[in-house]
Amino acid sequence: MIPFLIALLSSFIITPIIISIYTKKNWLDNPIQTIHVKKTHSKPIPRGGGLVIFFGILVTSLIFLQFDQHLIAIFIGAFLLTLVGTLDDIYDLHPAIRLATGLVASLIVVGSGIGVAYITNPFGPGVIHLNQPQILLNLFGTTKSIWVLADIFALFFIIWNMNIVNWSKGVDGQMPGFVSIALIFIGILSTRFIDDPTQFNTAYLSFIVAGAFAGLLIWNWYPQRILPGYGAGSLAGYFLAILAILSGAKIATVFMVLGLPTADAIFTIMRRIIAGKSPLWGDRGHMHHKMLDVLKWGRRRIAVFYWASSFFLGFLSLYLNTSGKLVTMSIVFILVFGFLIWVKINKKGLR
After folding, report:
1. How far apart are CA 109 and CA 7, in angstroms?
2. Cβ 262 vs Cβ 84: under 8 Å
3. CA–CA separation, 323 vs 329, rounded Å?
4. 162 in a domain, yes or no?
5. Which pTM was predicted?
6. What span, in angstroms and rounded, lies between the C-alpha atoms of 138 and 126?
C-alpha cells in the first residue's frame, strides 16, 4: 500500500504544477477553436496527463525499486511516449506518428528481453509455447537469441493495449479510474507469481502505476481540471501490457479487466473499416459517446460504470481459469456489440 500511496501523492502534487504551466503557455485543448466530433468537453482544458503519470511513476520507482535492464528499458520507452504525448498536447500530431512512436517504445521493451514465452491453452490443459522459432544474432561479441513468435506477440499486445485504452478516455475520470483498478488486480496477481524475471518487484511497480493514475484521477474527475491526453492514455496501456507479461503472461486477465475498452475497440475498428474510413482517426462512435448521446447518461455515471465493470471483471479474473475468462469475455463482447448495433440500427444520436 505504501508505494501506491506515495505514487498517488506524487501525481496529486505534480498535477497542479502541470496545469499551471500549460495554462500560462496556453497549451489548452479548446473545443471551440479546434472542433472535433469526438470531444465531449466544452471549455478549454490543458492535457498534460502524460507528464503527471511519468514523473509520478519515476519519482516513486526511484524510492522503492531496484533498476535493472528491464526497468531501464521500460522507462526509456515511457519517456519516449511522454515526449511525443507532450508534443501532441501542443501540436496535435498525426495519428501515424503516435502509432510509430508506440511501435518504437514497444521495440525497446521487447529488445530488453521482455516477451511472451507462452500463453495458457484456453481449449485444454497445458500451455502454448511461443519460444520457437529462434534467430541467433552475434552483436558485439555477444550471442542474442530472438524468439520470433514471443517477440511479435509481445509487440502486438503492447501496441494494442496502448491504443484501446487511449480510445476509452472520452469523459471525466473514465480512463484513470478503470486503469488504476486494472493495475491493482495485476499487482495482486503478480504476488502469486514466484519466478519474477526482474530484479525489481513487479507487484510493486503495478501498485506504483496504479497510484499514479489514482492521483491523476482526483484532478480528472468531474469537472475535470486536466485531460489525460495521448501521453497518459498510451502510458496506461503500455504499463498494463508490460506488467501483465511480467506477472506471468496474464494476457487473459488484461483482456478481462479491459473488457469494455477491448470490445469497444474491436467494434470500432470493424465499423470504420466497413464504412471505408481509416481506423486511426477518431469519431463519436465509441461506447462512452453513445452512453452520453443516446442513453443521456451523465459523465460521472459513465466513468463509474467503466470502473465497476473493470472491478467486477478483475475480481472474477482472480478465480476463473483461462477457459472461464474466455467465456466471460465472449459474454462481454456480445453485450457491447449488441448495444452498439442496437444504437446503429435505431440511428439515435449518431453523428
Report:
1. 22
2. no
3. 10
4. yes
5. 0.93
6. 33
Number of domains in the chain: 1
User: What residue has cell string 504525448?
Assistant: 85
Whether residue 351 lies inside any domain: the answer is no
- Separation of CA 210 from chain center: 11
Would residue 18 count as lying in a domain? yes
Nearest to 234 by CA among 213, 255, 218: 213
Residues 122-179 have pLDDT tens digits of 777 777 888 888 887 776 667 777 889 999 999 999 999 999 999 999 999 999 999 9
> Across the strands, what pairs with 143?
138
Are the CB atoms for 202 and 247 separated by under 8 Å?
yes
Q: What angle do CA 34, 38, 41 make, to 5 degrees?
A: 70
9 part of a folded domain = yes
CA atoms of 22 and 229, how far apart (whole Å): 12
What Å distances lie between residue 126 and 87, 191, 241, 254, 323, CA to CA? 45, 22, 22, 20, 12
The three cell numbers of residue 61 are 520507482
Maximum CA extent, the chain: 64
Domain coverage including residue 188: 2-346
pLDDT in tens, 250-290: 788 888 999 999 999 999 999 999 989 888 888 898 999 99
